[in-house]
């Protein structure tokens, strides 16, 4: 057991994976400059000496300390407290930890009562590991103040009960992965929610009433999901004027989606892309560069009807119009049908789809090539996963094309070659992309008419004589 009395200026102490470490020396109280203490995987530690006097300590990690039953008073400067997998029955003095921002109680199966939190807590992680904790939450939900939360993770939850009925007005990210409920219920009142993660909720059948600012929905491996009743996907109230805005809706391996859902998802992908591309063009004309991205992934084997240039196989070539990069040009929408049979057979878990965009002229020395990563799938392969549709748009590609090609007219055609990448190997022989499509985006005529009408209204009228 190390003695810290001679190491007073240490800022980080890490004993990660020291499974046989029996305890931490009380001399740690002399390390006044200590900022982080990490005891992850120290399975023999049953208690921890007080850190109350360590006023610089901001992060305490006790992940996997399965023998830890008692937690002495901790420093009031703590910002992150990770107790995942610990055997503690009580979390002391959380309401007095005014600097605490993140509290992780995943896997704390011995915890009998939910702690009272201070308003400073922004991220909370819980799992439905023990009935005592669930009962405590249900009984106290009316008096539970979670109004400061921005991130809430509820993993392996059997039923949501009343926890989402508490004051969560500032919540931006909600994760309910690996849970077994059939219906989340309405979350439309979570007005600040931007991200909903429900990976592996195999019993979930229905999604409804999305909140107005949702821009990320990760429903991967929700194999029982059938119905998505909110058809608007919060398009109207999305704050698209924010820079570097990303929209990502993934229904990977949701093969029970009904016909209404399969029709509405590509339709709303089109609408979302239209909104973002036109807003990006406005910003670009003002000299503001953007890095927006819109991506939709869903089960299917057909290119959406609104993507008008299509080809079988993994590449497509199209003739480019004159003045490609004029002020009406918004970029390209890319689409690919992904048959992940090869991923299933080979058992790879990292699967990347990217596109090589080649712009050709009569003079080969002027040819331009741009590469874009479209989608990374990092998950254990699922037996039921099959063909999926990937629809993608990025203002980054649009701006790269405009800056690379400029106003030049000698680029006559473009070839888009889709590739799949498996753990450091590129292989086009594995049928990763079986069909692809591209759509050139321009400001539509109706939008131009509306713009002209607005400009006319702004013009001052001459006085009638």
UniProtKB/TrEMBL annotation:
InterPro entries recorded: C-JID, LRR_dom_sf
Cite the entry's keywords alphabetically.
Leucine-rich repeat, Repeat
User: In its keyword annotation, does this UniProt entry include Repeat?
Assistant: yes
Pfam (any one): C-JID
Q: Which Gene3D superfamilies match?
A: Ribonuclease Inhibitor
Q: Identify the residues that the record assigns to the C-JID domain, covering every copy.
A: 299-445
Q: What is this protein called?
A: C-JID domain-containing protein
């Amino acid at each position: 057991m190390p003695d810290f009395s001679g190491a007073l200026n240490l800022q980080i102490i890490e004993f990660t994976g020291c499974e046989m470490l029996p305890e931490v020396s009380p001399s740690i109280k002399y390390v006044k400059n200590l900022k982080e203490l990490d005891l992850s995987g120290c399975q023999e530690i049953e208690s921890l000496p007080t850190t109350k006097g360590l006023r610089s300590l901001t992060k305490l990690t006790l992940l996997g300390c399965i023998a830890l039953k008692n937690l002495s008073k901790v420093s009031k400067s703590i910002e992150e407290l990770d107790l995942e997998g610990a055997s503690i029955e009580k979390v002391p003095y959380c309401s007095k930890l005014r600097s605490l921002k993140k509290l992780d109680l995943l896997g704390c199966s011995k915890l009998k009562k939910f702690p009272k939190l201070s308003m400073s807590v922004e991220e909370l992680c819980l799992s439905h590991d023990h009935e005592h904790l669930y009962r405590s939450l249900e009984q106290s939900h009316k008096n539970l103040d979670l109004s400061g939360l921005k991130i809430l993770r509820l993993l392996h939850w059997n039923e949501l009960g009343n926890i989402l009925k508490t004051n969560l007005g500032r919540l931006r990210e909600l994760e309910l992965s690996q849970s077994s409920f059939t219906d989340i219920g309405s979350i439309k009142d979570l007005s600040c929610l931007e991200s909903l993660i429900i990976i592996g909720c195999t019993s979930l059948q229905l999604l409804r009433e999305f909140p107005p600012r949702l821009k990320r929905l990760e429903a991967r491996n929700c194999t029982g999901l059938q119905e998505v009743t909110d058809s608007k996907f919060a398009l109207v109230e999305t704050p698209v004027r924010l820079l570097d805005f990303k929209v990502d809706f993934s229904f990977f391996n949701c093969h029970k989606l009904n016909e209404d859902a399969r029709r509405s998802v590509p339709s709303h992908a089109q609408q979302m892309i239209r909104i973002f591309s036109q807003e990006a063009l406005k910003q670009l004309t003002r000299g503001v560069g953007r890095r927006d991205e819109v991506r939709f992934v869903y089960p299917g084997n057909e290119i959406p009807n609104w993507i008008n240039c299509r080809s079988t196989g993994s590449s497509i070539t199209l003739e480019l119009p004159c003045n490609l990069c004029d002020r009406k040009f918004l970029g390209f929408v890319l689409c690919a049908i992904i048959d992940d049979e090869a991923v299933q057979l080979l058992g790879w878990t990292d699967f990347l789809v990217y596109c090589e965009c080649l712009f050709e002229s009569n003079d080969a020395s002027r040819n331009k090539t741009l590469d874009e990563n479209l989608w990374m799938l990092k998950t254990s392969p699922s037996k039921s996963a099959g063909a999926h549709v990937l629809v993608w748009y990025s203002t980054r590609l649009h701006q790269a094309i405009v800056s690379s090609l400029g106003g030049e007219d000698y680029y006559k055609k473009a070839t888009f070659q889709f590739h799949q990448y498996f753990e450091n190997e590129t292989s086009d022989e594995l049928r990763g992309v079986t069909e692809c499509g591209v759509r050139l985006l321009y400001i539509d005529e109706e939008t131009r008419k509306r713009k002209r009408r607005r400009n006319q209204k702004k013009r001052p009228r001459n006085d009638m004589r």
